[in-house]
Amino acid sequence: MKVERAEVIRKDLMRNRFPVVTGLLVALIHTSAPLGGAEPAHTQNKGRPAVAVVNRDPIFLDEMARDLRPSDRARLRQGRGTTEDMALLDRFITIRLIAQEAATMGLDEVPEIRKQVEVTSREILREVLIERLVKGVVPDARAVEKLFKESVREWKTSSLLFTDEAAASRVRKEIAGSAAFAEVAARAVTAKTAKADDDSAYHPKKEFLPQIAEAIATLQAGQVSPVFRLPSGFVVVRVIDIRYPENAEARAEARKRVVSQQQLAFLKVHEQAQRRQFVVVNQTLLKSLNYEAAKPGIDALLKDKRVVAEIKGGASVTVGDLTDYLRMQSFHGSDQAKQGRNMNAKKEDALDATLGRRLLNLEAQRLGIDKTNAYRDRVTGYKESLIFDSFVQKVIAPESKLKEEEVKQYYNAHVKEYSYPAMLRVKSLTFVRRASGEDAIRKLREGSDYGWLAGSAEGRVAKGTPGLLTLDGQPVTIDSMPEGMQKALTGSKAGDFKLYESPEGHAYVLAVQQVLASTARPYDEVREEISKKVYGEKIKKGVESYAARLRAQSKVETYLERVK
């Protein structure tokens, strides 16, 4: 079986350890900020607080604390760790032991790994610099509040449903002419030209039909929407009230989005300033480059040493540099003409991207970012992750071959996990009042035809009503239904009629058409999925077993005391 790059075990053991991201903005983790506070003297190593030492190789506190909350960092600074902290520390120790063992085999000197580390270290250098540059960006409070309100806004509405578009338009015009909505609605209902839906609940945007949601988003309380055509008729919606319920998660997300937007804007301005100060672009040469032309051709341009952009204090960008980048980013295939067109279309963007990277690298070096612990720790972590993968492939995988009987054995022992869920075929009629639903069930049990009742019953909830759930006889998994509906249908069999009253106050009459029991999925259908899982577990156990042997032969000191 093909080795899956040891992803299962590596992700488990190295969870939250190596957030290496290649984009301009990363999920900002301020690793360069000192953790502060007094440290127990025995945890100091090379002038930095450490949580463990593995064969004289320290695992530093800020390595482990990088992705933790401030409260968790404070606890670690005091030398105390929860059960979760101790498990995380064990994973760090396992990784370090494996990396040390791999180094003795020379895996850290493999050319492919060295090349990957070289390339990625430049990405990390830029990321650490960007974190420092944007650290002081403070989100605009008004922008956060605006985005927050847009995300949590809820409407209370009242609507009129018409069967005739002309009648709906007349009522809409009358209301727009300052007539009271309630009075006009009452007359329309009395005349039986419209049905009213007075919903006392508030609903978020996602619970309205798209066209209605778009219209009411621009309305203030008291205003009325245009006439909308729905499958059930024509509707006019009045906004009764708007509210913005507090939601800590939504507020945090709004702040995060605003910060990200402002950071991107800041970085753009910063890059433009750097370009004005350090870059001179040969626009004439750039415009003259034609990758569609037969001559001189891509091969010649790859060797072209003419300078497209001069960078003060750094290496210039040549035609060859730009061509090589475009060649890697553009279409690869037999259609050379298409590849040339793509390269021509992207050459200015490619130059911008190249200059952006090089300017950040130069600035990072000027500021000494490459000498900081934040940078060095990440590079070390990334290198360890590559060595870890290589070790698993070369040492653990050959001893973890998967046998077919192991897959079958797992399938037989966990057949419930690999079964189609129980399903029901149910049709529903929904009424405004419970009494109407109970009356409908009585009629159905007495022999009334469901189709006739669906077309003639009074007091039905209008189609398109926010929050309305419609069941049309298609198979539905039981666990996908609302909890109350699941309870109402417990123990049902074909031909049963059940009543369910929703939190919105709607009375659902549920006509059970068919009960489809849970059935096991065929082995061939799930074999690959199970194989990956079982193989991942074998790899994980193999690593843990090997690490345990290494630990028994090593000197490992830990400086965290478990919190009781």
Distance between the termini: 44 Å
Q: Radius of gyration in whole Å, from Cα?
A: 33 Å
Structural class: alpha+beta
- Alpha plus pi helix count: 20
Low-pLDDT runs? 1-42
Proportion in helices: 40-55%
Strand percent estimate: 15-25%
Q: Globular, elongated, flat, extended or rod-shaped: what is the shape? A: extended
Number of strands: 20
Features:
564 residues; 50% helix; 5-stranded antiparallel sheet; 4-stranded antiparallel sheet; alpha+beta; 20 helices
What's a quick, concise take on this entry?
With 564 residues, the protein is α+β, with helices and mostly antiparallel strands. The chain has helices spanning 7-13, 61-65, 70-77, 83-104, 111-134, 141-152, 165-176, 181-190, 210-216, 248-278, 283-288, 298-302, 319-329, 336-366, 373-396, 404-413, 434-445, 450-456, 483-489, 523-552; strands at residues 44-45, 48-54, 57-60, 80-81, 154-162, 194-198, 203-204, 228-230, 233-243, 279-281, 307-311, 317-318, 419-420, 423-431, 472-477, 497-501, 507-516, 519-520, 556-558, 561-562. α1 crosses α20 (523-552) and α5 (111-134) packs across α14.
